[in-house]
Amino acid sequence: MIGNDNVQGEYYLTDIIALARDHGVVIQTHQPAAIEEVQGVNNRLQLAELERYYQRRKAEELMMSGVTLSDPQRLDVRGELCSGADTFIDINAVFEGRVVLGNGVSIGPNCQIIDSVVGDHVEIKANSVIEGAQIDDHCVVGPFARLRPGTELAGGAKVGNFVETKKTRVGRGSKINHLSYVGDAELGEQVNVGAGTITCNYDGVNKHRTEIADDAFIGSNSSLVAPVRIGRQATVGAGSTITRDVPDKELGLARSEQKNIAGWERPVKKP
């Protein structure tokens, strides 16, 4: 048994060697490639120094495999990162879990990618967070996008700034460009989702699905109350709250009639 009968009163991992010898275990030696591999950690400063050494080694491996790093000192790989050739990674990128990047991928600054697969020639713009997602070739994500677990982007799809997706498949060539939340949904091909659109997928107890078929157009500031289906080549007028299915090629419009009041005077502050 390892003891702490020493001046410091500490338990030393190296005492295992003597213990193994006393028990007849064959002891073999191995020469470390660098002193950092056997360097002890006694405080947070030393721990940070060894972490940067590890990250520098990972950065060197990536660059030798054909990845361009804007600054090798500002990269964090906290798991397994596999990348194809001609990929560019800007500063402060963080990779967690198992991440696979294809060829010709471009990752902007301050991005976090967790347990995701990214296809060839994908552009991930600044400040995007991607977790548990599958992104096919030639997609564009961000800036300031959040892809939550279960997101799948087919080839050429676009998810733009301040858009959040969850358990959603976005079909080939479809776009969710601005300020939208799309969760528990299936989008066909060439769908255009306008700014401020949300899928109302949670009723307080259960989650419900939204289906948007090929070539549908969703006007800005629309609420799609699931379960609901928007048909092929259907249109949802801007500002609508849709609670029933919209058939193929039809226009769904659900908003109150505008009223203009003549002669109305705006209130003014009294001096």
Explain this structure.
It is a single chain. The chain has 271 residues and is mainly beta. 11% of the residues lie in helices and 32% in strands. It has 2 helices and 26 strands. It has helices spanning 15-22, 44-64, and strands spanning 68-69, 75-83, 88-89, 93-101, 106-107, 112-114, 117-118, 123-124, 129-131, 134-135, 140-141, 146-147, 152-153, 158-161, 164-170, 175-178, 181-187, 192-193, 198-200, 210-212, 217-218, 223-225, 228-230, 235-236, 241-242, 251-252. It has an 11-stranded parallel sheet with strand order 1-3-5-8-11-14-16-18-21-24-26, covered by helices on one side. The longest helix is centred in the N-terminal third of the chain and has 21 residues, at 44-64. The protein starts with 14 loop residues before the first helix and ends in a 19-residue tail after the last strand. The model has no long low-confidence stretch (mean pLDDT 95).
Give descriptors for this structure:
eight-stranded parallel barrel; 2 helices; 32% strand; 271 residues; eleven-stranded parallel sheet
Mean residue pLDDT: 95
Radius of gyration (Å): 27 Å
Quickly count the helices.
2
The residue fraction in helices comes out at 10-25%
**How does the helix and strand content classify structurally?**
mainly beta
